[in-house]
Amino acid sequence: MKKWNRRTRVVVLSAILTLIFLAIYAAGVMLPEELTAPSIRSTRLPPSLEHFFGTDALGRDLFFRTLKGLSVSMTVGLIASVISAVIAVFVGIAAATGSRRMDSFINWVIDLMMGVPHMVLIMLISVAFGRGLKGLLIGVAATHWCSLARLIRAEVMQLRSQQYVAVSRRLGKSSGWILVNHLLPHLVPQFFVGLVLMFPHAILHEAAISFLGYGLPPDQPAIGIILAESMNYLSAGLWWPAVFPGLTLLMIVLLVDKLGDNLRMILDPYSAQE
């Protein structure tokens, strides 16, 4: 039996991680509302076979509520990450192909945004846009594009110095043609890797901002809301409303981060035969 090389092993592992992620997301999206409904007879129950994560002060099953909250957090994180990654591509290309003054201005904006802590910047933007889902999405999407934009800029500047790009210019090809046929195909791997690696950061920031009260409204079963509610009961000895949702969020973030590292390894030509 032929031994799998490193890339094959990484592809199989990435497929398994993707299936786990999609299964958790689908379970949360398709979960019936009655499974997360309050129940006066089941308030503050510890973890058991009937309630894996226990119940909260309103009798809601924390296992099902955590699944629902993860699906909400994943949706917000995914939308914000896609918007942020698209912004990074446009900004990076503009910096690399524009004038020197535009490049300097874009780099100045990136340095300015990266100099301000993400949490503070997201809170300010969220409040400016009325908090809630809209403010949170705009805040997360508007603050996570900087690192990827710099990477895209460096990649485009390197591609523009290649001989086949110079030949295309001498043949009279327009800048738009060169961008579509020579530059963008090489940026697709960078885009997807950056998007996947941005996703766990977006989820964590969404949960943190909602936890502090500047994100999703309290009626949404997001992980940040669940953790914020659990703080009211820690002094009463109810540890499970905080521990299990927090550990589940950490597991999802580590899973997606590992998936991003694997994707980067798959797209790296030097790791193909290791």
Brief summary of the model shown:
This protein is an all-alpha fold and 274 residues long. The chain has helices at residues 6-29, 62-97, 100-115, 118-128, 132-141, 146-160, 163-170, 175-212, 223-230, 240-267.
Q: Topology as H/E string?
A: HHHHHHHHHH
CATH class: Mainly Alpha
Low-confidence spans: none
Integer average pLDDT: 84
- What's the CATH H-level superfamily name? MetI-like
Count every helix, treating DSSP H or I runs of 4 or more residues as helices. Answer: 10
Q: Please report which band the strand proportion falls in: under 5%, 5-15%, 15-25%, 25-35%, 35-45% or over 45%.
A: under 5%
Notes on the protein architecture:
The protein is mainly alpha-helical. It has a single domain, classed as MetI-like fold (Orthogonal Bundle). The protein has 10 helices and no strands. It has helices at residues 6-29, 62-97, 100-115, 118-128, 132-141, 146-160, 163-170, 175-212, 223-230, 240-267. Helix 2 (62-97) packs antiparallel against helix 8 (175-212), helix 6 (146-160) packs antiparallel against helix 8 and helix 9 (223-230) runs antiparallel to helix 10 (240-267). The two termini are 17 Å apart.
